[in-house]
UniProtKB/TrEMBL annotation:
This is Aminotransferase. It comes from Caballeronia mineralivorans PML1(12). Pfam families: Aminotran_1_2. GO terms for molecular function: pyridoxal phosphate binding; transaminase activity. Signal peptide: none annotated. InterPro entries: Aminotransferase_I/II_large, PyrdxlP-dep_Trfase, PyrdxlP-dep_Trfase_major, PyrdxlP-dep_Trfase_small. The lineage of its organism: Bacteria, Pseudomonadati, Pseudomonadota, Betaproteobacteria, Burkholderiales.
Amino acid sequence: MNPAPFRLERYFAVHEFTARYLMCSSDPESLSIADLLAFEPGSMEGLGRTWLGYTEYPGAPELRRELATLYESIDIDNLIVHTGAQEAIFSFVNSMLKAGDHMIVHMPSYQSHYSVAEALGVSVSPWRARESENWALDPGELEKLVRPETKAVLICAPHNPTGYLPDRERFDAVVDFARRRNLWLFSDEVYRGLEHDPAERLPAACDLYEKAISLGALSKSHGLAGLRVGWVATRDRDVLAGMSAFKDYLTISNSAPSEYLAAIAVRNTSALIERNMSIIRNNLAVLDTFFARYHEILEWRRPSAGTVAFPRLKRGGAERFCAEVLERTGVLLLPSTLLDHGNEHVRVGLGRRNMPDVLQILENYLRERGTK
């Protein structure tokens, strides 16, 4: 197995820790261990007592008990904790799919959603979001994409990079399609909880469908990427058995200190999400004003959820634009070429406190370039 180079991650490997300003990050503002421990008195002592031996392969029982509270139909035996969401995606594809199978993938997408499968010999059909409809998906297209060898549908909701969130009717239509065709529904829900209107939050797919696999992580919703904690929640016994066995060839078990800290984070989910959403709401208001001023060169489709947006350049290529901005200002943006979606869009991150200041640097550059 030899997956294609992960273009987005190679881009970050070069620029993420050398660029002066990040304006394309998908993870929100993080916090220190001390800040996290402050949520619970006595937790510093608890961290000090954490045993540094192997942990249980599906995750510490305490952490899984807390994670189960995020769902309606899931208990600790329906969860497998992984070292980040990436490991969980890799494990699902390698344990449940094989060469000659086919899967349908929501596009544009995070590259591991499809590259891991393609490297395994799985055929992938893109299910493309419709930009003209605010990046909506059309469930009716699934019947045109399905094949006799189709085994899975993969969606990302809330969506990276567009910030699209399906309404309940569309989401239920996807679930109904998967059920009628007896397909696995792999639902990347790492941005769940960051809906800009909480009333629009969707149920977890695993609560609606017995063959759905809900992917979660603390990197996005909780702003704790450094803990490297992700998980899958599913009622499908074959998936649980297959992914458990495959994990023996990956990390086997997770980091004990990370699992201890993760349990604190999950117990304080509401506070951490509200912290992140206050930053996002403020940044969205600033971006609305910015894009109104620069509507002649940038088309703004306001996201409905999550920490990213995907504006379109009305002239010029995104790759060249991002390179020039980085060279002239030190501001890192992400061109859509790294997301297999042409050369017209730029991913913008909404979750960092310094975004208004960085946006001002970008605006100064646009003015100097004479694009207003």
